[in-house]
Amino acid sequence: MSHLCLPDPRDRSLAWWKDEPACLAWWRAVTDTEAPTGLPYAVDLARLYSYSVPTPEALIALRELGPLIELGAGAGYWARLLRDLGVDLVAYDIEEPSTNSWIADAPAWTKVEVGDEHSLAGHSGRTLFVSWPERPSGFMSTVLDVYPPATLVLITDGRVSVGADPLYDRLASGWEQDMAMDIPRWPGRYDSLMIWHRTDSRHPERHRRRRRASRSAGAAPKRSDEMCATLRRRRCRDQQPQRKPLGDIRRKFAPNAR
């Protein structure tokens, strides 16, 4: 890995790298290494970026389901990418990044409001997006009562194998899974992106959005030309971001690494 150049994960101006999520570029570098070397960096990178790795396919599928509201947004990495693509999105987390134990005490990637499931009530009509909610206990057991969206985008590792799982028990009654999308996984994680809709939801626009999201997920290439074009329109290309040697980046966010 020492010969590679990758973005500094603490630099909030470098959410993208070569027209794809910077987190995805780091995931490739980490998973190309042997496990004893890659795993410690994956833990730190998940805290600095996101515990789920975004892809062009996943971002385009989410864009087709907008407007969105994200709960448990953390430092807002997914929210930043989606907003860069023009998505109307509101992001909440119960803690500010500076006090959030799940992330590496790093600045937010974008604006994340402080709020919990009760903050969702004023945002009806938005698709709910939640990545890695705490389970089997946690807020998701009540979110669907407080904010019953027509469509739910969920990133988890599926139903727990032992004991009760209130979230999936709830989804088993009154909800139907439209699709499941494989996304890259940090070592030791087994998450997928799933799109669910309420079976009593018959709004035609919601059905059109789900069909568009399914087509996007099934047909999008690894690096979407559409995404590249959108980013070129939204970002100034007069000055290329400075590339930093991997060794310098390692020392910056993993100072004890060898």
UniProtKB/TrEMBL annotation:
Biased composition range(s): Basic residues: 204-214
Domain of life: Bacteria
Region (Disordered): 201-258
Name of protein: Uncharacterized protein
Compositional bias of kind Basic and acidic residues: 237-251
Species whose genome carries this gene: Phytohabitans rumicis
